Amino acid sequence: MELFDSLIIGAGPAGSSAAIFSAETGNRVLLLDKSRFPRDKVCGEFLSPAIWSFLKKLGLHSKILETGTRVDSATFVIGNEKSIRLRLPVLDPELPFGWGISRRSFDALLLSEARYRGVTVLENMEVTHYRKEKSFFTLQATEKTTGKLNEFRASRLIHAAGRESRWKHLKGTTHKTGFKAHFTGPALEHSVRLYFFKKGYVGLVEVENGETNVCGIASNECVSAVKGNFDELMKEIAEENGEFKAWLAAALRKSSWLTCSRFDYGFNQNTLPAVGDAASFVEPFLGQGITLALASAFQLCGRPHNLRNTSKIKQLYKQKARLRPLISLALNSAYSMPWLFRLHTRWPAVCQHFVRKACSL
Ligand SMILES: Cc1cc2nc3c(=O)[nH]c(=O)nc-3n(C[C@H](O)[C@H](O)[C@H](O)COP(=O)(O)OP(=O)(O)OC[C@H]3O[C@@H](n4cnc5c(N)ncnc54)[C@H](O)[C@@H]3O)c2cc1C
Hints:
The chain has two domains: 2-39 and 106-170 and 271-321, FAD/NAD(P)-binding domain (3-Layer(bba) Sandwich), CATH 3.50.50.60; 46-101 and 173-264 and 322-361, D-Amino Acid Oxidase, Chain A, domain 2 (2-Layer Sandwich), CATH 3.30.9. It has helices at 13-23, 52-57, 61-65, 103-116, 220-225, 230-240, 242-249, 289-301, 310-321, 324-334, 339-346, 348-359, and strands at residues 2-9, 29-32, 46-47, 69-71, 73-78, 82-87, 98-100, 120-122, 125-133, 136-143, 149-159, 176-184, 191-197, 200-206, 212-219, 252-253, 258-261, 266-267, 280-281. The protein is α+β, with helices and mostly antiparallel strands. The relative contact order is 0.18. It binds flavin-adenine dinucleotide. Residues 9-15, 32-35, 41-46, 126-127, 160-163, 165, 178, 215, 217, 260, 276-278, 284, 287-291, 293 line the site of flavin-adenine dinucleotide (FAD).
């Protein structure tokens, strides 16, 4: 049985960055993921401006800047005429913008950096059990291609297996479906464009290779009405929104639709130290999940060693959870009650303040 200092379950942004931070201090780290990379993921693929300080700590900001597209603002569009454009806050004067990059590229870049820093990475390896014996954790994982069972041992085990791993611990779901596909289409002028419809919203972000990520969340009712045909759903959204209609008419879908369901919020009750979505899941509309994944990994494994600060992780997620009722209200009423536009006309600074609060950690 192989012996390590740290075992990390899940090689998404949280697990890979936790592995890089841990390896920095000379730890022998094993990072396991059930998928083979590069892999796609349902995500808006927007990195908030707060991410740069963590990418700098990981020594990865220059590499990320080579792949993807700068995002300076967010444009909210409802119906045919109303749209407002809000500047993203400047949180790092050297890198005063957000970023659009596919999860396929972003997650693979983090994982290859982890390998480069000496982390042992095992892909296609699904963790099925773990047990604690005295001061050691023993972890069982199955190689997905061969079915071979493996055991690993370490004094530290970190849970970074994402949102889906939380289902068995949390009660309550909402009835929504997340969806995404890549398109080529007209340029978006470095703005995340958000279109609202009766039962959800869709966001457009330019990523790398001239592609645009189209990602949204719709009620299950809405998805059933189009029999799960997301091209049909796009056409329906376009009927309610002239600007999106024009964009879609000139666009071409380049990948198949990916979907996800179940959105459980709240803090993980698991006794293992957890980072990223495994710790807590925030409202995707905020576009902060990836930044929080890196921030929580830094709190648990970053220097000055050893922070191991799980209460700071809770605090990070709680701050964002406090915004949830306000965001739900805004999303539920955005389509039928364009109060946001009135607010913006009268008090633009209030809207700008809210964007700053949403984007900061
Ligand atoms: C619709 C939608 C849109 C979003 N848009 C954005 C956005 O624009 N910007 C943003 O910042 N955030 C966004 N998010 C949130 C973001 O996707 C997550 O916060 C982020 O993926 C969290 O990273 P993570 O590493 O914690 O989890 P994940 O990225 O989910 O990684 C977990 C990894 O664990 C692996 N795993 C799971 N179980 C096992 C097991 N048993 N054994 C081994 N491996 C396992 C999985 O294969 C996966 O690779 C969005 C989320 C949704 C649902």
